[in-house]
Amino acid sequence: MYSEEYKDVMTKLRGFLEQKTYTEEALALTEKALELLAAHYTTWHYRFNIVKAIKRDLFEELDWCELVALENEKNYQIWHHRQLIIEEILKDEELASKFDFHREYPILSEMLQEDSKNHHVWSYRKWFVERFSLHEAIEELQFVESMLDADLRNNSAWTHRFYLKFGLEDWQKNVDSEIEYAKSKIEICPQNPSSWNYLKGIYRKSNRDIRELREFCTPLADVKAKEIKSSFALELMAEIEKAAGDKDLAAAYYTQLAEVYDPIRANYWNYVKNML
After folding, report:
1. Could you say which residues form the signal peptide (predicted)?
2. Total-model pTM
């Protein structure tokens, strides 16, 4: 089922691998192999070893990596390879002095403009932030806010924001402001699970009492007035009443979820109710 070209390239590649050939010819062959199958992990591993052995210009390797990434949006190995190359640069004092982490922003922005929920790129961006201690970098904060302004339902952007704000040692300073930020976004789009998960995540992280959120949730899930703007608010109201010790009221909320506001998950809500 393979093309003749693919079979020829891979046969030659296997021969080079067995002979542990680290030359410019072998490097060119890996490039050809990755053009045919960019997700071939063994080829990426071999290429990295060749790059080190022949002392290829590591900045040129990063440039080449960007071209491959633009043509293969869903590829993970490219970003792993890029991490390895950057780590090699940082090991060398002279090369490290020439490396500017800002060079990563254009390719990351372009990739996420193409696909704002590209998991591989977001994972790389998390590594990038951690490696260069960029949790409070203005570029990161501005970027993640722009992504959320463009799409409040972008769970990847919410996850990245949480990492920026709560991946710090002194993350406690961000609790109050981030609670207000999450609330402001919920008010714009009440039926958005990402912003609710973000809000609840802050409360779990900081061990805050979720009963503080009763006043905020009530207008969004007023069962008496039969005005339910958000099933997620109703779910949180059930959790609040459970925390307050009112199991009957919590059960009533779960029943509403199961029967009216989120029946597709009725089995789950009935299970949660029975666990009370």
Report:
1. none
2. 0.91
